[in-house]
Please model this.
Amino acid sequence: MATKILVIAEKPSVAQSIAKALGVFDRKDGYIEGNGYIVSWCIGHLVGLADAEMYDEKYKKWSLDTLPIIPQKWQFVISEDKNKQFGVLKKLMNSKDIDEIVCATDAGREGELIFRLVYNQAECKKPFKRLWISSMEESAIQKGFENLKDGTEYDNLYQSALCRAKADWIIGINATRLFSCLYNRTLNVGRVQTPTLAMLCERDNSIGSFQKEKYFNVHLKTDSLDAVLEKVKEQSEAEKIKSECDGKTANVVSVKREQKTVSPPKLYDLTTLQREANRLYGFTAQQTLDYTQSLYEMKLVTYPRTDSQFLTEDMGDTAKSIIDLVIKRIPHFEGYSYTPDIPKVLNSKKVSDHHAIIPTAEIGNISFDEIPDGEKKILFLIANKLLCATSEKNIYETVTAEISCGGYSFITKGKTVISDGWKAVEQKFKAFQKCKDDDEEETAELSLSEADTLEVTSDISEHYTQPPKHFTEDTLLSAMERAGTDEITEEVERSGLGTPATRASIIEKLTKSGFINREKKNLVVSDSGKDLISVMPDIIKSASMTAEWENSLSLMAQGKFTPQQFMADIGKLTDDIISVATNSVDESKVTKNSGDVIGVCPRCGKNVVETQKAYSCEDRNCGFALWKNNKFFENAKKKFTKEMAIALLRDGKIAVKGLYSQKSCRNYDATLLLDDTGTYVNFKLEFAPRKAIKKK
Model:
């Protein structure tokens, strides 16, 4: 029997693209077959780390006595909803018809982990090769298959990914249980999200404690200029200056002219793309990642989860051909003419796993009307950046003039553009897209010479010192990228908090957990977020600690740091967190039970009492709670009352009228059943049987 090659992609859509490139078209249940290949897929993370309670029954109850929880032999589980596809992969991987396996998951740390965990859980022993590509174009896929790497070359990358997952598990499990038990309420702690939240909280505290101060600017004005004496503290002084200058003759004391250049921007990595999309369009980091991933799967852009802003030195011809297509195909660049300076975007030394994000040749074949608006905005943004990055410098002249009047010195500034350079591209793009950068400043031209005399009027403007600005996703991504990196080795670029691939999910987790709120573009810490950070010791809030982890993980992927050392460091850190936290409990912030008993706990038989946020078991280790701000009741537009909680605990069910259905936009009546899994408290709906219609 002829043997076949099994190719495993990360998701079905990617598998279809790979199958098409390989000439594989016979669709089966869970895979595609033909031309000597079987192409199958994961569905994201099929296999993950097991919950703590799977290691020992005692971990079902949260208790300080069981900490730290650090598995000696790690256990893995298959996601219940993905069990069928895992079964398909396991059967194929161990089939006698398969003599070669190709890992074709996303070419990055998480993609490597997804495949390896499936491979190990399926107990597969066959050798495998690795497909490593930056584009989903057919030509790129085919070239990738011509240059497959031995799977063992990526062992270090896998270890890095696995250690990251284990570290997140250890810190998350232990710190969450630790602080929840110490403060008698659920406090969710994460390796990266908690330092990120701490950074947000520090900024909000600075804003809240800011004391604004009034000051005055005195202006000298003519028809064509406005010169300013800034930040006069006292109004009386400002009035005095105004009176001595109003209607008088002023003299130009000095005029300083300076020519300046602004180099073209670099190409996009994921973080800079997310920042600019937030600034121009208000897109969240997650939205930008989703749109770019969609474009990648549509074969319109290269791999999105990159941390490089350069192309490799063999991509010069590719870049030139893409630039020609951009000018030809994208409406607002039609007819634009320039000579691209391509070498400035080529630097193989600054490309590790993936090069910068650029469009692909597929833009020559697509109708842009078929692309959703969000994806289209991102595609045009990426195309614009390619033209900007290969354009000439922007050259301008600044003019700073000092003007004297009444013995006081006033300053006015102007700017004259000498050569638009890359700014011409950007201006065309923003005009067409009807978007404006909030950071842009407009300065008029200024024609003055020394010894000029001016007839001026004078007035006063009132101002206040401004507090620091709230973080936006743009500025937070930048801060996360830089956080804690001052003392990090230069061998690894931009470690910071998280990675380009994970920062969006961190922000989303903080939002979904209710720790931060989006107020237009601003990210503002909620009361629960402030509450969490208020009880966290520095050891868990430290950005530098997390940056060091990312640095170690990056070095591990390069084979320069051992998994054993990393996990030993994590174990020691966990012990330190427990020690510091237990010895520094702020008793004033420990939540006290109200003592108002409303029923019996269905898990352990102890009393359920009313607290500020929930109806919960008096035994904190039990973990049973009916939360007052319950998502089910929130979606059903119904208040979860104390009477309801009492009835549920007594009878296990309650009849509720007027529940709202978000699907049908109608109200309905139902019986609500309490469904406690022992870990989670859920609700089930039961409906009265419909009355039979009597036939006439």
